C-alpha cells in the first residue's frame, strides 16, 4: 500500500475515533466503557497505518485503567479526579495525533491549519480540565454546570478537529491521484 493510501486510511480511522467521541453514552450504566473501547479501538486501527513509534498506546492503557477504576469503585473523590486525569490523558493522545497530522501536512506541502486547530483544542481542553479540578469545592448546582459547560466545549472542539481531519483526508486523497496519459 502506498504512503498516500496509508495516510488516507490513517485519517479515516482517526475521524472514526473522533466521531465515536461525539456519542455520549453515559446515559446507560457501563456504556462509557463501551465508548472508550470503541474510541481506543479506532485509535489503534488508525495507528496501524502509521509506521513511527508513538506513546499513544501507553496513554490509552492508563486511561482505560482509570475508567475501569472509576466505574467499579464508586467514590466521589475517585470520580472527580479520574474525570480530570482521563481528560488530561485524552489531551495527551490528541496532542500526539496532532503531531502526526502536522507531519502529514508537511509531507504534502499543505498550507493547513492544523497548528491553529490544535492550539485552540489544547487551550479549551486545558481550561475545561482546570475548571473540572474545582468540582469538589463547589455546590452541586455549580458541579453540574461546570460538567455541562465543559462537555459542550469539548464537543465543540472535537467537532472542529473532526471537520479538520475530514478536510485533510480529502486533500490528501485528491492529491494522491496520479493521471497518466498514453502517447499516440
Distance between the termini: 31 Å
**Total beta strand runs:** 0
For the biggest sheet, the summary is: none
| Helix content estimate | over 70%
Instruction: Give the oligomer, counting copies of the same chain as homo and different chains as hetero.
Output: single chain
Uncertain segments are none
Order of helices and strands: HHHHHH
Q: What is the count of DSSP helices, taking H or I runs of 4+ residues?
A: 6
Q: Indicate the mean pLDDT.
A: 85
What is the radius of gyration computed over CA atoms, rounded to a whole number of angstroms? Answer: 19 Å
Strand content: under 5%
How many discrete domains?
1
Structural class: mainly alpha
> What coarse outline follows from CA principal-axis ratios?
elongated
Key descriptive features of the protein:
mainly alpha; 184 residues; transmembrane helix; membrane; 0% strand; 6 helices; transmembrane
Amino acid at each position: 500500500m502506498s504512503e498516500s493510501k496509508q495516510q488516507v486510511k490513517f485519517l479515516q480511522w482517526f475521524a472514526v475515533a473522533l466521531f465515536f467521541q461525539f456519542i455520549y453514552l453515559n446515559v446507560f450504566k457501563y456504556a462509557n466503557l463501551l465508548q472508550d473501547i470503541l474510541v481506543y479501538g479506532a485509535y489503534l486501527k488508525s495507528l496501524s497505518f502509521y509506521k513511527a513509534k508513538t506513546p499513544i498506546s501507553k496513554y490509552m492503557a492508563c486511561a482505560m485503567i482509570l475508567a475501569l477504576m472509576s466505574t467499579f469503585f464508586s467514590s466521589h473523590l475517585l470520580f472527580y479526579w479520574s474525570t480530570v486525569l482521563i481528560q488530561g490523558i485524552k489531551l495527551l493522545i490528541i496532542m500526539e495525533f496532532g503531531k502526526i497530522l502536522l507531519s502529514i501536512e508537511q509531507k504534502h506541502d499543505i498550507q493547513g491549519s492544523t497548528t491553529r486547530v490544535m492550539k485552540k483544542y489544547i487551550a479549551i481542553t486545558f481550561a475545561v480540565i482546570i475548571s473540572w479540578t474545582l468540582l469538589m469545592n463547589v455546590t452541586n448546582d455549580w458541579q453540574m454546570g461546570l460538567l455541562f459547560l465543559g462537555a459542550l466545549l469539548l464537543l465543540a472542539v472535537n467537532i472542529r478537529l473532526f471537520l479538520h481531519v475530514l478536510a485533510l483526508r480529502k486533500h490528501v486523497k485528491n492529491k494522491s491521484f496520479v493521471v497518466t496519459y498514453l502517447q499516440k
